[in-house]
């Protein structure tokens, strides 16, 4: 069921600084900042040969990463995203296994416009997992 690693998302307090760090220290190509008001974040995307890194900076009052950054002042890995071929089949399989899907369980358009779901970190070794329709 599980497919490619789509991205690793890193919450950062200062996107410009984080982008400069990846650019200057690692020689990465970082996209221009992309504000996603519906998701409460501004992203900077780093394309790697085999996956992407998404730097996430809070945007607006109710950013979903604000609390995370209160606990992790320097930032930190926020979630990892796996691709699945059929997100509703994946959800049903996980629910059948007794695992928790966040929210109302209905896939919603994610940062890339494709349907996504999030799985409870307590069910996945302390890692917030995003599933994205491939
Ligand atoms: Co994501």
> Strand content of the residues, in percent?
35-45%
- Helix-strand pattern: EHEEEHEHEEE
- What do the pLDDT scores average to? 96
Q: Which ligands appear in the coordinates?
A: cobalt (II) ion
CATH topology: 2,3-Dihydroxybiphenyl 1,2-Dioxygenase, domain 1
Q: What is the number of strand segments?
A: 8
Helix content: 10-25%
Q: Which CATH architecture?
A: Roll
**Which structural class should the secondary elements be placed in?**
alpha+beta
Write the layout of secondary structure elements.
Layout: E1 2-11, H1 15-26, E2 34-36, E3 41-47, E4 52-58, H2 66-71, E5 76-84, H3 87-96, E6 108-109, E7 115-119, E8 129-133
Parallel strand pairs: 1-4, 5-8
Antiparallel strand pairs: 1-5, 2-3, 3-4, 6-7, 7-8
The chain binds cobalt (II) ion (CO).
What does this structure look like?
By secondary structure, the chain is of the alpha+beta class. The protein contains 3 helices and 8 strands; from the N terminus they run E-H-E-E-E-H-E-H-E-E-E. It has a single domain (2-133), classed as Roll (2,3-Dihydroxybiphenyl 1,2-Dioxygenase, domain 1). The chain has helices at residues 15-26, 66-71, 87-96; strands at 2-11, 34-36, 41-47, 52-58, 76-84, 108-109, 115-119, 129-133. The chain has an 8-stranded mixed sheet. The longest helix has 12 residues, at 15-26. Bound molecules: cobalt (II) ion.
